[in-house]
Amino acid sequence: MTRHGYTSAGRQRWRCRACNVSGLNGIDNSAKRLEEFLAWLLSGTRQVDMSGQGRSFRRRCKDLWSIWPLAPLVDEVHDVVFVDGIHLGRKAVVLIACTPDYVLGWYVARAENSRAW
């Protein structure tokens, strides 16, 4: 790839000498966004307290909000298992299975129905 001028926006354009295809090299900053998102998630700060009331942060991290966490695999046998669901808001519920002593596992689902259990 060799330099092949600039775009109207001022970005460097590159051209392949072998096949004559031109393109732009973008910077992949997804790791930086994931680090920023996890730092906020594990801290005690609120988005309202961020600069711009968190609007820029939400825009930068919008792709990370769609990642659903994986539930842990539980293969234990118990006499009694309690199951319940906690509704988090629109189209999100956490399904929890527990014994009288501790939590066995959880699952995030869109709705509390038999298919999700």
Question: What does this entry look like structurally?
Answer:
By secondary structure, the chain is α+β, with helices and mostly antiparallel strands. It has a domain of 49 residues. Helices cover 15% and strands 28% of the residues. It contains two helices and six strands. The strands form two sheets. It has a three-stranded antiparallel sheet with strand order 1-2-3, with no helix packed on it. A three-stranded antiparallel sheet has the order 4-5-6, with no helix packed on it. A hairpin with a 5-residue loop joins strand 1 and strand 2. The protein is elongated. The termini are far apart. The mean pLDDT is 84. This is Transposase.
Kindly list the characteristics that best describe this protein.
3-stranded antiparallel beta sheet; 15% helix; 28% strand; 117 residues; 6 strands; 2 helices; Transposase; alpha+beta
Give the helix tally.
Answer: 2
Residues in β-strands, percent: 25-35%
Q: What proportion of the residues is helical, as a percent range?
A: 10-25%
The main sheet orders its strands as: 1-2-3
What is the string of SSEs from the N terminus onward?
EEEHHEEE
The largest β sheet comes out as: 3 strands, antiparallel
Rounded mean pLDDT is 84
Protein name: Transposase
Organism: Actinomyces urogenitalis DORA_12
Short description:
It is built from two helices and six strands. The protein has 117 residues and is of the alpha+beta class. The protein has helices at 30-41, 55-60, and strands at 2-6, 12-15, 22-23, 82-89, 92-98, 103-109.
Write the layout of secondary structure elements.
Elements: E1 2-6, E2 12-15, E3 22-23, H1 30-41, H2 55-60, E4 82-89, E5 92-98, E6 103-109
Antiparallel strand pairs: 1-2, 2-3, 4-5, 5-6
